[in-house]
UniProtKB/TrEMBL annotation:
PANTHER family noted in UniProt: ENOYL-COA DELTA ISOMERASE 2 (PTHR43684:SF1), PTHR43684
Protein localization: Peroxisome
Name listed for the protein in its UniProt record: Uncharacterized protein
One Gene Ontology cellular component: mitochondrion
Organism, scientific name: Xiphophorus couchianus (Monterrey platyfish)
GO MF entries: delta(3)-delta(2)-enoyl-CoA isomerase activity
Length: 273
């Protein structure tokens, strides 16, 4: 459980109703227009850091998009950030069951979250409108198309926080960019520029920030006119197994003294700024 704006005419929905629920989303803006469902992370003041509530709402939004009439789903972020990863304040809210119970609950939520991407029956597109950190980067290996603005960066600082990779990235990243470059990111905290991420095959294309939204929207609308198709899903069972293994490893990390100390050090450093 670690750690883009769409343009166009009026949308069919601004805040959509979660699947099976009556309330609107609190942390997302979900809209459907031109046969495209857009899921926008909507905590710009917190750089779209992901809370447990947001995890659950994204799962619900993916379930909704799987059933609607759209051709594919687009993820993006409100404001200047795509997503700053997990909201680390999650780790300061110890439940009544203690750290072990918090880790168990977090693990099951993470397992469901990543599985929602694996199981999504339509193409997934990421419109990375700014910096991306943590799990917002690792799940990109499960997407079909990733467009980024030139000012986007991709960072997975897990070992700095006493944690380990998730989102099936321990499997997808070596396949995409090779084992040594994947290790540089996932184990040694290497931050990639958008252009470097494109060179390594992590993302599809980089656009100038000034024309990013207009160029991406033009392309997506053109793609939405194509017949529905899906090129993913051949690795589903493998991805399930990888997800389970990563979640098990993270559960161990979350209950470790090393992880606790690393997160506390993060907050102490932040308080001095």
């Amino acid at each position: 459980m670690k750690p883009g704006s769409s343009t166009g005419g009026s949308s069919a929905q601004v805040a959509a109703t979660p699947a099976g629920g009556g309330a609107t989303y609190e942390t997302l803006l979900v809209s459907t227009e031109d046969d495209i469902t857009t899921i926008k992370l909507n905590r710009p003041a917190k750089k779209n850091a992901i809370t447990p509530e947001m995890y659950n709402e994204i799962i619900a939004a993916l379930e909704q998009a799987a059933k609607d009439e759209s051709k594919f789903a687009v993820f993006t972020g409100a404001g200047d950030f795509y997503c700053s990863g997990n909201d680390l304040s999650n780790f300061t809210k110890i439940s009544e069951g203690g750290v072990q119970e918090m880790a168990r609950q977090g693990a099951e939520l993470l397992r469901r979250y990543v599985r929602a991407y694996i199981d999504f029956p339509k193409p997934l597109v990421a419109v990375v409108n700014g910096p991306a950190v943590g799990i917002s980067v690792t799940v990109l290996g499960l997407f079909d198309l990733i467009y980024a603005t030139e000012r986007a960066t991709f960072h997975t600082p897990f070992t700095q926080l006493g944690q380990s990779a998730e989102g099936c990235s321990s499997y997808t990243f070596p396949r995409i960019m090779g084992p040594t470059k994947a290790s540089e990111m996932l184990l040694f905290n290497k931050k990639l520029t958008a252009s470097r991420a494109c060179e390594l095959g992590l993302i599809t294309e980089v656009f100038p920030d000034s024309s990013f939204q207009s160029e991406v929207q033009t392309r997506l609308k053109a793609y939405a006119r194509l017949p529905p198709q899906l090129v993913r899903s051949v690795d589903k069972e493998r991805l399930y197994a990888v997800n389970d293994a990563e979640v098990e490893r993270l559960t161990e990390r979350w209950t470790s003294e090393e992880c606790f100390n690393a997160v506390m050090s993060f907050f102490q450093a932040k308080a001095k700024l």
